[in-house]
């Protein structure tokens, strides 16, 4: 079981184990629901995860990588 504490400003730090399981990070949104006396938290941005890795960036030029990704997807003129 993972625990966290509510601050004086009513904020909660999401423990690393939970962030990793939900695959969330800064600026991601969470959905909080109350079911059968328990709080249930889920990631609101799951639909975006299908795009992870779509652009292969590395030590090369990022602009060139974006252009290459667009070319591969048939969006060269966009």
Could you describe the 3D structure shown?
The chain has helices at 16-22, 62-72; strands at 30-35, 38-43. The chain is elongated and about 50 Å long. Strands 1-2 form a two-stranded antiparallel ribbon. Helices cover 23% and strands 15% of the residues. With 78 residues, the protein is an alpha+beta fold. It has one domain (16-72).
Q: Approximately what portion of the residues adopt beta-strand conformation?
A: 15-25%
Structural class: alpha+beta
Shape: elongated
Distance between the termini: 48 Å
Helix and strand succession?
HEEH
Radius of gyration: 18 Å
Mean pLDDT: 81
Tally of DSSP helical segments: 2
Kindly state the percentage of residues in helix. 10-25%
Number of domains: 1
Low-confidence stretches: none
DSSP strand tally: 2
Biggest sheet overview: 2 strands, antiparallel
Strand order of the largest sheet: 1-2
SSE layout:
Layout: H1 16-22, E1 30-35, E2 38-43, H2 62-72
Antiparallel strand pairs: 1-2
State the gist of this model:
The protein has helices spanning 16-22, 62-72, and strands at residues 30-35, 38-43.
Question: Key terms for this structure?
Answer:
78 residues, alpha+beta, two-stranded antiparallel ribbon, 23% helix
């Amino acid at each position: 079981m993972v625990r966290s504490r509510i601050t004086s400003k009513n904020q909660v730090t999401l423990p690393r184990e939970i962030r990793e399981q939900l695959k969330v990070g800064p600026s991601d949104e969470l959905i909080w629901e109350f079911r059968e006396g328990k709080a249930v938290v889920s990631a609101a941005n799951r639909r975006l995860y299908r795009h992870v890795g779509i652009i292969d960036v590395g030590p090369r030029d990022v602009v060139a990588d974006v252009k290459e990704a667009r070319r591969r997807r048939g969006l060269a003129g966009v």
